[in-house]
Amino acid sequence: MREDRNCQWRVARRPDGNVVAADFQYTEEDIPFPGDGEFLLKTYYINLAPVMRMYMGGEAIAGEVPLAIGDVIHGRAVAEIIESRHPDYQVGDFVHGQCGWQTYKVSKGTKQEKFRKLPDLDISYSAALGALGMTGFSAYFGFVDCGRPQAGDIVVVSGAAGGVGSQVIQIARLKGCHVIGIAGGPGKCELIRSLGCDETIDYKTGNIAEKLAAACPDGIDLYFDNVGGETLTAVLENLRMHSRIVLCGSISEYLLDKPFGLSNYTRLRRTNTTMQGFFVYNHVDDFDRAEHDMSKWLQSGQLRPVEHIFDGFAALPDALASLYTGTNHGIALVRIRRGPNDNEE
Ligand SMILES: NC(=O)c1ccc[n+]([C@@H]2O[C@H](COP(=O)([O-])OP(=O)(O)OC[C@H]3O[C@@H](n4cnc5c(N)ncnc54)[C@H](OP(=O)(O)O)[C@@H]3O)[C@@H](O)[C@H]2O)c1
Question: For a Cys staple, 277 with which of 76, 247, 283, 341, CB 3.0–4.6 Å?
């Protein structure tokens, strides 16, 4: 007999600006039964990402199926297989992949869901979903493959106290770079300093371009951009010759009605700078390499999985809103159930 229920968060209406409570609908259903070729997943943690607000807006984005009103919101989770009628997935296996904002899911293990089995490592489920999941892989492919860092490079990272940013600054340090992190407020600047930033910039006070000029008098070799907008504009004023810019995200622009419109892009030409976008799922054939390297750094203590854990399924809507107000520190995750290697806090 099954005692639990499947709890779900669905799209109630399209968000206008940041998400608010009325944009979400809470539902409960019986836990579904897997048919032939299917398995049943029980979720432990769900990973939050700014893109989820765009999913709720119905956008065909990040390779996901566009959501209609009433659909369960997309989200990657770490989950246990508790029933299986699928030859490749056994009861007791743990995976991370597209489970949606719900506490149980029946799956066929499709390519679209991008399930990966958890590596056989002595780490928490939250770290397996965050640092060894899409947040960590975004940091890895964006910084290592696209940024091509060299020891001694002057590296600037925006959104440095967020999920991707907190991993990038640590990878930059272990690659021997001089790292300047940009984040909002003194608390976050203190956090990123503790993660290895040589210098920090609080973008919420003063002029960002002037602060960058003071922190990097010889200019910037590599900029990892999580925020776009005014910060990207300020970086363009402080580039070295032959520098690189990696466009990971532009969260400062996501709530705008009209595109920001970069006015000083000709700085790229004058400095022979390469600006390159990337999308983590374009690297799917190479995920094993990212997992191998990131695990090695985690286990050696060179990489700390900075996590902001919101407790309980009910916390999901507020947790998503917090990414846009900046209250999260590190990788934002919602804990549905505790795992064996969880911290006791
Ligand atoms: N290309 C890809 O494949 C890929 C993959 C994953 C994520 N991304 C993108 O990478 C970026 C980081 O993602 P994440 O999951 O790690 O999120 P995150 O950085 O953990 O969360 C958002 C953070 O952005 C900052 N922020 C919010 N509004 C801002 C604004 N108006 N101006 C400047 N900063 C603002 C806040 O930090 P402060 O308090 O410091 O403002 C907030 O904590 C996002 O833009 C995301 O869309 C891209």
Answer: 247
